[in-house]
Amino acid sequence: MTQEPEGMTLIVKSIGRLVINFIMLFGIYIILYGHLSPGGGFPGGVIVATAFILLMLSFGRKTALRKFGDTTASLLDNFAALSFLTIGFLGLIGGYFFLNFIDRGIPFQLFSAGTIPLANIAIGLKVSACLYAVFVALAIFGKVLAGPEQDGVGPAEEKPTDSGEHRR
Asked: 151's torsion region: left (phi>0), alpha (psi -120 to 50) or beta?
């Protein structure tokens, strides 16, 4: 038996190689400049997760999990949540939860918002890792639920019974 190549066609893989890096870069840009323009951690995290999902759809599950595994996604998700919580509790030292404890700097510059860019980075990491982990879990869980197809009969079709009963 010949083994089918994993992933999509050569055209999809070629375009995926070109586009994935740009999608990732754009997501990072949206996360970093979210305090100056529309965007922030959540939309940037969704864009970064889209790049990893495109990687999985283009090249297959094994290649995507080799690049960014589900364990790595879970660890990154937990680290991002812990860092977001740490940013909030560090403000508590000044008297308020999420108090801006970093100098604000010059307006409309990258480092002009104090702790907001740090919170955007933490949220972006959390959202991207969490969405990718959910996609991986659904891909694996869906494969387990579907099960192997036998005799050309899919999971939605019924096999005929041997009891002699025929439906009309």
From this structure: left
